[in-house]
C-alpha cells in the first residue's frame, strides 16, 4: 500500500510529518498494513488538488492525505472551499479516497496552543480513518452514526 | 437490483442501518423488487461522493443512498454544499440516481429528539423514492406537484 | 422531435402537466413541429440533472424542460444553485438545451395565488422558448434585447 | 476567422447587434482580419454556455462573444455566477476564448441611460479584445498592467 | 523547462514582466534550471484559465504562472473565485501546476504604494515556489509547516 502525504509551506505546523509519525506507529501494529509513503509539499492548500492528482497518477498512491492550514480571513475560507471542491473532483476521478484534513484558524483565533492541539488531533484521527478505508468499505461500519469528531472530543450517538 | 448505502461515522444516528431496515420491509412487499445492498461507511459526508462512485463502478450498484449528517455551524453548511455538488457530478457521470439524504442540525438546533425524528422520517421516505425510481421514470408521476416533503409533513399541492 | 419533461413531487403545482398542455396547444400550430414527449418525475429538483442526462442519453430527447419548485428558505436557494450548475453541466456535455424553469417561493412568500400565477406564466413562455430553440439558433434573434421576462410582464427594451 | 455572437432576449439592449456593428467597423480596418459571424440568440444568460459550446462544435467558431444582461436582484447575481462558471468550463474544454461580456444592472440601478452607456462601452472594447486575441497570445502584451477597463474609463497603471 | 506567464491588461502593474525578471535572475543561479518563457496576455483574470490551458497544450509549458489583479468590489471577488476554480480544473486536468498569483485590492484599498508592494512581493516569492516545484515534489518539504506567506512577512511556524 502506498500513501500520499500532501502538505504546505503555508501551514504553521509540520502537518505532513505529524501524519507520517502516526502512520509509522499505527499502520502495521493496529491495521496489519505494510505501507510506503510519498511526500509532496506545495506552497498553499490551493496547490493540493494537483499534487493529489500527481500522487495518484505518477506515484501510484492508493490513498492521499491532503493537509491544509486555513488562515483566519474570509478570503481564506473561500480558498478552502475551492480547494475542497477540487480535491473531491480529483478523488472521484481517481476512484480513490483523499482524506481532506484542514485546520481552520477560525476554530481558535489567535490561540496558538489550541490551534496546534486541534490540528494534531485531527491529523492523528484522520490517519486512522485512512488506514481503515484502505482495509475495506465496511471497516468503519461498526462506528457508523457514532458522532465521531476529528479535532475535538467525539459528539457521540444520539440515544 | 443492487442498492448502495453510503453513510458516515460523523452522523449521530445510524443512518445506514435505518435505510436498510426500510429497504428490507418495503422493497419486495410494496415494489416487488428483490434487492441486494452494499454498505460503505466513511468518516464524513465529504467522503460520500467517492464512496458513491466506487459503489457504482466497483460494486455495480444501480442506485446509491448517500446519507449525511450536517453540523450546525456555517462551515458545515459550506461542506454540505460541496458534497452535494460532487454527488451530483457523480450521478450525472454514472447516469444513475444518488438519493441525497442529508439531515442539517440547523433544522432543529440542540433539540436532539426532533433531530432524530426529522432524520428518520427523511430516510424512510427517501428510501421509498429510491425504490420508485428503480421501477421507472414515471413511477412518481402520479405524485408530481403534490408538494411532498421528507423530514416533515407534506406541504401538499396548491389548489 | 422528442422533448423531455422532468419535474418533481416536491413542487406544489403539476409543472410537468402544465408544460405538456402548452406543448400540445402550440408545437404544431405555432411552430410546425411534430413532437413526442418523455416524462420523468423525481423527488426534488436536485434530482433533475441526472434525470435530464438520462432523458438525453437513454430516451434520445432533443431538448429537456427541467421544472423545479424552490422552497422559501435560504438552504433551498443553495440547493437551487447546485441544481442549476449541474443542469448546465449536463447541457454543455449533451450539446443540447435544457430549459431551466424554476419557480422560487421567495418571489411571492406565502401568497399562493401569486406563486401559481408566476409559475404557470414562466412555464408557458419557456415552453415556447424551447420550441423556438428547436427550430434554429436565430429563431429568437428578432427578439434579442427586447427585455423578455418569464413569470412577469416583459421589461421591454431600453430606448 | 469565424466569430460566434451569443446573446439573449432577456437583455434590454440588442447586445448582439452592437457587437456585430463594431466587428464590421474594426475587424479588417484595424486588425486585418476577414471574419464571418454566427449569431445565436437564447432566452437568458444561463443558456449561453450551451450556445457557446454549439457555436464552437457545430458552427466551427474560433472565438465566441457571450453577451449577458444581469438583473438587479441578488438571485440574478447568483445566476450570473453560474453562467460564468460554465462559460469558463466550455472555453477550457474548447481551448478557445469566450469573451464574457456581462452588464449588471447593479452597476447603475434604474438609471437606464447610464446602463446603456456602460453596456455599449463594454461591448465595443471587448470586441476589440476578441480581435486582438485572435491575432495572437502576445497581441495584448504591450497593454499588460495598464489598468484597462470595459464599461468605464481605464484605471491606468500604477506608477 | 518551459514556463508559461499569463497576465492581464486589467492589472495595474505589469505582473508578467515582474515575474519574468525574477525568473531571469533566479532560475539558473539558484535552481540550476535553464528555462524558456511563453507570455500570454488576456483582458481580465477570468480569461486566465483558457490561456493556461493553451499554454500547456499548444505551447508545451511545464508550469504556468497565472497573474491576476482583483478589483475592490464584491463582484470582483466573485469573479476571482470563478477564475480560481477553473484554474484548478485546468491544472488537475493537465497534471501540472498553475501557480495562482492574485493580488486583491481589498488587501490595501486605495493605498496604491502598498498595493504594488504586496503584489511584487507575492510575484517574486511565488516565482521561486514555481521553480522549486519544477525541481521535484520534495523540494519544498524542508519548509513544510514554516508558515510561509507571499505578499507579507512570513507568519512562521508555531512552537
Question: Which characteristics define this entry?
Answer:
homopentamer; 159 residues; Rossmann fold; four-stranded parallel beta sheet; 4 helices; globular
Question: Can you give a write-up of this model?
Answer:
5 copies of one chain form a homopentamer. Chain A has 159 residues and is of the alpha/beta class. Chain A has a single domain, classed as Lumazine/riboflavin synthase (Rossmann fold), CATH 3.40.50.960. Helix content of chain A is 45%, strand content 18%. Chain A has helices at residues 15-31, 48-57, 74-94, 112-135; strands spanning 2-8, 36-42, 63-70, 98-104. In chain A, strands 2-1-3-4 form a 4-stranded parallel beta sheet, with helices on both faces. In chain A, α1 (15-31) runs parallel beside α4 and α2 (48-57) runs parallel beside α3 (74-94). Chain A is globular. The N and C termini of chain A lie far apart (38 Å). The model of chain A has no long low-confidence stretch (mean pLDDT 97). Chains in contact: A-B, A-E, B-C, C-D, D-E. The interface between A and B is large, with 36 and 40 residues.
Strand percentage of chain A lies at 15-25%
Please tally the β strands of chain A and state the result. 4
Given the helix and strand composition of chain A, which structural class is it?
alpha/beta
Give me the strand/helix succession of chain A: EHEHEHEH
Number of domains of chain A: 1
Largest sheet of chain A: 4 strands, parallel
Helix content of chain A: 40-55%
State the end-to-end CA separation of chain A: 38 Å
Bulk shape of chain A:
globular
CATH architecture of chain A: 3-Layer(aba) Sandwich
Amino acid at each position: 500500500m502506498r500513501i500520499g502525504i500532501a502538505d504546505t509551506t503555508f501551514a504553521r505546523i509540520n502537518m505532513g510529518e505529524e501524519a507520517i509519525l502516526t502512520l509509522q506507529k499505527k499502520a502495521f501494529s493496529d491495521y496489519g498494513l505494510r505501507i510506503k509513503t510519498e511526500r509532496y509539499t506545495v506552497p498553499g492548500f490551493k496547490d493540493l488538488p494537483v499534487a493529489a492528482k500527481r500522487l495518484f497518477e505518477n506515484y501510484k498512491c492508493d490513498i492521499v492525505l491532503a493537509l491544509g492550514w486555513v488562515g483566519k480571513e474570509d478570503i481564506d475560507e473561500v480558498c478552502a472551499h475551492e480547494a475542497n471542491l477540487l480535491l473531491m473532483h480529483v478523488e472521484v476521478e481517481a476512484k480513490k479516497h483523499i482524506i481532506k484534513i484542514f485546520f481552520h484558524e477560525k476554530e481558535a483565533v489567535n490561540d496558538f496552543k489550541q490551534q496546534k492541539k486541534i490540528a494534531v488531533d485531527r491529523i492523528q484521527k484522520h490517519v486512522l480513518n485512512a488506514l481503515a478505508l484502505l482495509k475495506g468499505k465496511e471497516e468503519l461500519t461498526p462506528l457508523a452514526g457514532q458522532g465521531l469528531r476529528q479535532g475535538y472530543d467525539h459528539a457521540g450517538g444520539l440515544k
